Amino acid sequence: MTATPARDIILRLDTIDQLFNEPDLNPFSEEEIDVLGEPALLRAVRRLLARRVRSWEGMRLVIELPVDQITPGLEQETEQALRRYSAAKIEDNHLTIHLSRTRSLIGLGIVIVLSIIVIFIAYFLLTNVFPRTSDTVKALVASSVSVFVWVSLWGPMEKLLFDWVQPHMENNILRKIPTLDIVIRPKS
Amino acid sequence: MPSDISVTLLLNHIDELFNTPDTNPFSTHEVDILGESGMECIKKRVTHLWPRRPDSVHVILQLPAEQITPGLTENTNTAVRRYCTDRIANNRLQRGLVNQRARRQFTGAIIGTLIALAVIAVLSVNPFGLLPDVLRGVLIVLASFAIAVLIFDALWSLVFDWFPFVQDNTVLTMLMRMELAIEPEPDKIRS
Fold first, then answer.
1. What is the pLDDT of residues A18-70, one digit of tens each?
2. CA distance A169 to A173
3. Confidence of residue A165 (pLDDT cuts 50, 70, 90)
4. What residue spans define the domains of chain A?
5. Is the distance from CB of B88 to CB of B27 less than 8 angstroms?
6. Each residue of B103-130: b (16+ CB within 10 Å) or e?
7. Contact partners, residue B11, CB within 8 Å, separation at least 6
8. Residues of A numbered 47-106 whose beta carbons fall under 8 angstroms of chain B's beta carbons: which are they?
9. SS3 state of residue B120
């Protein structure tokens, strides 16, 4: 398997900790990670999400460090750390998805009950209390109620249908990252 | 189906039960891998079951032997109860603020609805015959849609914003009752 430089994910760090921890924000620095002040791994995950990688073959994670930061066995330790971090983060994202689904389902239940009550009240008013209401007003009330129900249902439905996508996609990337070839080399 | 939850956490120091350490996946300690406090780790285990509640939560904290002092378990239990009580109170406060904002929003929505209804009434009567029927119809429909959206926005806040606080408090109430034990870590496995 030959890796082409174009498929390398290159992270330039001052210490290996910056892979997982955000450094202080420092726009005076020329290093991207300092300018944005965010953990290098999360930035890499976001970039990969944006790139929609289809084939992971030949892709490498290249970490560039100052020479004095490179110790024997660091590659293996980093690989294990990435594996641990990814597994924990995947579990965390599963919890996020579970909570989002549970909340959406409860919300959907509440909204359905509210919608039924509103529809019933509107029907009762128009048929029993104001039976002589003109058809125009009836149509108006019906359209308002339908918009209300539609808009109310949309919120929890949207959460239920789409909120899992982002953490799920992040998990797909996190599953792949520990499988990448990890190269640690001195900063040029 | 409710069940028991058993958690064993390796800590470097008892402070890590409440304070977040730096993220350090080079360590095998659960609290270090994502950089979460011990309480957060325990909370996540219990939250996995939410909205169901476990029958009981058993937690074993493993510490370096030299860190275990007489009375540490009792002190930690007291600290956990205090932490949970304060967090629950804080969540109630936050929830109250959110509800207050939602009620204000709802009041605003009612006022907006009344104004929109008045506009609809005026448009329906068309007292001066100034507007053509098509335009009147469009304006009436827009006003009625505005009512629906206004009420929805306010209701959304009332119906959904309490979720995170209630969920957090349910879990914290479980944690207040958890059985906590402290024991020396078996051996040094931290890299």
1. 999 888 887 787 777 778 788 899 888 888 888 777 788 888 899 999 999 99
2. 7
3. very high
4. 5-84+179-186, 93-168
5. no
6. eebbeebeebbeebeebbeebeeeeeee
7. B17, B29, B31, B38, B61, B62, B63
8. 77-78, 80-82, 84-85, 88-89, 92, 95, 98-99, 102-103, 106
9. helix
